[in-house]
Amino acid sequence: MVQIKKRAPIQIPATATKEPSNPTKLSICLMGPPKFGKSDWANQLGDALFIDTEDGLKELKTRDLRCLNWETYLDIIDELESAEPNYDFLVLDTVSRLYDQCFKYVCKKNGFEHPADQAHGKGWSLIGKEWSEGIWRANSLNAGCIFIAHSKQKEVDVIRNGFKTKVQQEVMSLPPSGAENVNTLVDCILTGGYVQTANNQSTSEDRVWYTRSTSANQAGSRFLLPETIEWDPKHFKAALTQKEKKSASKPRRRRKQ
Question: Which long-range contacts (CB under 8 A, 24 or more apart) does 74-82 make?
Answer without folding.
Answer: 74/134, 76/51, 77/134, 77/137, 77/138, 80/141, 81/137, 81/141
